[in-house]
Amino acid sequence: MRADVPRFADFERVVLFSGAGMSAESGVPTYRGAGGIWKQYDYRRYACQDAFDRDPEAVWEFHNFRRGLVGACAPNDGHRIVAQAQKALPCVDVVTQNIDGLHQLAGATHVVELHGSLWRLRCDACGATTHTRDAPLIDVHCPCGAFWRPAITWFGDPLDDAVFSEAARLIAGCDLFVAVGTSAVVYPAAALPQLAKRGGATMVEVNPEQTDASDLYSVHLRGTATEMLAKMAG
Ligand code: NAD
Fold first, then answer.
1. Once rounded to an integer, what is the mean pLDDT over residues 106-129?
2. Are 103 and 157 in contact (CB under 8 A)?
3. Going by CA atoms, what residue is nearest to atom 44 of ligand 1?
C-alpha cells in the first residue's frame, strides 16, 4: 500500500466514483452494515418492479419513508470538497451509485447518477417525468391518473444504457479514479472501476474498511470520505 496521498490538482481527468459511504457522514443509512435499511425491509415487497405492479401504495409508503430519511440530511464536507474541485479544476466528473442527490445539493454540476434519483419521478403510462424534493410526496399520481414511479434502479432493473455508457466513457478516459464509500459488489456498476484500471489511471480507494475490490487499487486511504477527500484536495 502506498502511503502518499494523490492530489486532485496533479491530474488532468479525475473521476470520483461514489457509493453509500459518501453520504454516511450526512446520516444517510448505508446499504450494508449497521443501520442498513435492507435488514429491516424485504426488497421483494418494497423495491422491485413486481412489488410496484402488485401493490404500488405499499411501495410508495416505503419510498416516502426513504424520502423523509434522506430529505432530512444535508451534504457533508466531502460532497462540498468534490463540488469545489469541480469548479476549481478543468475536469472532475462524478459518477455516483447514490440516489440521494447530495452531490448536486452541495453544488456539483456534472453528476452521472447510475441508479437514478430518489427525487425524480417517471410515469410509465404516459412517459411524463418530474422532479420534486417533497418528502413525503403527498400525491403519488401523475396528472394522467397512473401512479408515479420513483426513477431509480430497483432490484432486478437494468441500468439505463445511455447513463451507463456515459459513465464508462468518463471512467475509461480518466487518469485519477477515486472510489469513495462503495463496497463495489453491486453489478454492473461494480465493473466500472476495472475500466479505469485498464486505462492506466491511478487507482485510489477511500474507505475505512477493506472491500472485496481493494486489490484493484494501488492507493488505499483508510478513513472517512470527509477526512480523506480533504487530504486529496489540500
Ligand atoms: P454499501 O452500503 O454496499 O457500502 C458502503 C461502503 O461505504 C462500505 O464499504 C463502508 O465501509 C463504506 N463507508 C462507510 N462509512 C464511510 C465513510 N464515512 N466514508 C467512506 N466510506 C464509508 O454501498 P454501495 O457500494 O454504494 O452499494 C449499495 C447500493 O445501494 C448502491 O447502489 C448505493 O448507491 C445504494 N444506496 C444508496 C444510498 C444513497 O443514495 N445514499 C444509500 C444506501 C444504498
1. 97
2. no
3. 31
